[in-house]
Design brief:
Layout (H helix, E strand, L loop, with lengths): L4 E6 L2 H12 L3 E6 L4 E3 L4 E3 L2 H9 L3 E2 L11 H14 L3 E5 L7 H5 L5 E5 L7 E2 L2 H8 L3 E8 L9 E8 L5 H21 L16 E2 L15 H10 L7 E4 L2 E11 L11 E5 L2 E5 L5 E8 L6 E2 H7 L10
Parallel strand pairs: 1-2, 1-6, 2-5, 6-7, 8-11
Antiparallel strand pairs: 3-4, 7-9, 9-10, 12-13, 13-16, 14-15, 15-16, 16-17
């Protein structure tokens, strides 16, 4: 296989893993597109994305347009990106969690078009947060789809698709597994470029993974125990499922559902507190045992260590 001239567009760690894999396979990275630097950390200083950091470390050219729409809010950014893309003269563009919509002129520019690494088994979970939503919904499997991009939202033809079992993973662990799988599959796709079978996505089974918002993180204890546990797993590490107790907003990081007889305590009531876990009433007859928590400004702690610094008693109630 001859090395390809690749433009890569991506922003977070998920994308950086794929970028490293493409470079390690011997392809030439002729341009990297990433989101503009964002303020982060306690000092809110501008921080480059993981993809930009990787590109800078390797000496690859980087462009960070705020938009790629030539008729949009930032036409100068889009025009500069267009010039950089034309100068790069790519064989193909690979996109992974970039964060900007690609207009048609971008899709048409590379000789082999644009390939997307999507973290779901399309058409399940099109959109921004497929990993979170798959866990939250209780899906048994998810995976990676390599897709030939078109103008729709994750609607292009599928080139490669591989499933993984979700098991008891939280978003952090599943993210890392899927990032590695995405890197392997995109290298496979580039090796077979031009000879891969394009499979249209089925019209049935389409769902949308809306962006996770912070307000979703507060636990509704009226839900079934399994649904609460899935949400805790889905929102680890961001935004962190939480619930107020004794005037503080506690983050709940690890929990599991336990069998219970019919309980009369209102949802959110602490039924038992021990070093093995805090048992909380959910929907009648359901109990969630929480085993890892965090106070505001504190560290994530196992329940035994947490209880040494925070007085919790049976009979208290989460909000």
């Amino acid at each position: 296989m001859n090395p390809l001239k690749v433009v890569f567009a991506g922003t977070p760690e998920f994308a950086r893993v794929a970028l490293d894999a493409i470079a390690a396979a011997g392809h030439e990275i002729v341009l990297v597109l990433s989101q503009p630097d964002r303020p982060a950390g306690r000092g809110m200083k501008l921080q480059p994305s993981p993809v930009k950091q990787c590109a800078v470390a390797h000496g690859w050219p980087v462009a960070q347009p705020r938009s790629l729409r030539l008729d949009g809010k930032y036409p100068e950014d889009a025009a500069a990106a267009r010039d950089a893309l034309h100068a790069a003269d790519p064989d193909v563009m690979v996109v992974a969690a970039y964060g900007l919509i690609l207009p048609q002129w971008v899709l048409d520019l590379p000789r082999h078009g644009c390939l997307n690494i999507h973290a779901s088994l399309l058409p399940r979970w099109r959109g921004a947060a497929p990993i979170h939503r798959a866990i939250e919904a209780g899906d048994a499997q998810t995976g990676i789809t390599i897709m030939q991009m078109d103008a729709g939202l994750d609607t292009g033809d599928m080139l490669l698709r591989e499933a993984v079992d979700i098991g008891s993973d939280n978003t952090a662990r599943l993210h890392d597994r899927l990032a590695a799988l995405g890197g392997r599959l995109i290298v496979q796709a580039l090796a077979g470029l031009g000879g891969l079978v394009r499979t249209p996505q089925p019209a049935e089974g389409v769902s949308y993974a809306n962006k996770v918002e912070k307000h979703e993180a507060q636990i509704d204890w009226n839900q079934p125990a399994e649904a609460i546990v899935r949400r805790i797993r889905a929102f680890d590490p961001f935004p962190g499922a939480n619930s107020p107790l004794d005037g503080e907003i506690l983050k709940l990081w690890t929990a599991h559902a336990v069998p219970a007889a019919e309980a009369t305590a209102p949802p959110g009531t602490l039924l038992a507190v021990s070093d093995e876990g805090i048992a909380v009433a959910a929907r009648p007859g359901a109990v969630v045992k929480v085993t890892e928590l965090q106070r505001p400004g504190g560290k994530r702690l196992g329940v035994a260590d947490f209880l040494r610094g925070f007085d919790v008693k049976a009979g208290q109630r989460f909000g």
